[in-house]
Write a structure and sequence with these properties.
Helix content is about 45%, strand content about 15%. With about 220 residues, the protein is α/β, with parallel strands linked by helices. The protein folds into 2 domains: about 150 residues, Rossmann fold, CATH 3.40.50; about 50 residues, no CATH class.
């Protein structure tokens, strides 16, 4: 007997003011920019001819607003659910601070890089190069992407992977029970861990991914 196949479409919210200004956003609210709305519209057009019966977003407005653009093309989507297991990684005390200030403090050795080191992931490539220059290549590689290390009052990548894994287990059961295609409006680091689990990727591979704003990722669940 041939198995039925249902789809998961997961995408990142559009660019925000914090993204443009070079601030650590995490779980703080930041509005979509004009460019961010265009990002969302691009994803919407790419998903236009897909069928979506159920959609998820997080409590953050940027996730909900982005989903709104997608659902304009999907009157068949009758159920919208909020699930914060797919929310952005918390950067704790770093949220709302600028990347440049972070760089400056690294230069002055004002940060405990065994704690804040993997926040480097959020920086633009040019700023990452400055950090590497401050630290030297060996030390940079040692502290960059501290998988199990969280910023003060924040989350590590391992923390995010754990909650995303719980969401995936729930999602697969939900799809099998309800026989639906699902859209998920999520965030860069939660999508990173979603991809890691669904694609059975290594940590090394995962931490080097950039999650684009105008692309969606598609996965299948067979029943």
């Amino acid at each position: 007997m041939k198995k039925e196949e249902y789809k998961i479409y997961v995408f990142r919210h559009g660019r925000t003011l914090f993204n443009v200004k070079g601030l650590f956003t995490g779980q703080m609210h930041s509005k979509l920019t004009w460019k961010g709305r265009q990002d969302a519209k691009k994803v919407a057009k790419k998903l236009k001819n897909k069928e979506i019966q159920v959609a998820f977003h997080t409590k953050l407005p940027r996730s909900q607003e982005t989903l709104g653009y997608i659902l304009k093309f999907h009157p068949e989507c009758k159920k919208i659910l909020v699930d914060n297991r797919m929310i952005e990684r918390s950067y704790g005390d770093l949220e709302g601070t600028t990347h440049k200030e972070f760089i400056k403090k690294i230069g002055k050795r004002s940060y405990n890089l065994r704690i804040e080191g993997d926040a480097i992931e959020n920086l633009k490539p040019t700023l990452k190069k400055k950090v590497q220059k401050f630290l030297g290549e060996a030390e940079y590689n040692a502290i960059h992407r501290g998988y199990k290390v969280a910023a003060p009052n924040g989350e590590s990548f391992a923390d995010v992977e754990k909650r995303v894994g719980l969401f995936i287990d729930y999602l697969k059961k939900y799809i099998k029970k309800n026989k639906v295609n699902v859209a998920i409006s999520a965030h860069g680091n939660s999508i990173r861990m979603f991809r890691k689990i669904m694609e059975k990727a290594s940590r090394k591979e995962t931490i080097h991914w950039f999650i684009p704003y105008e692309k969606f990722f598609e996965y299948s669940v067979k029943i």
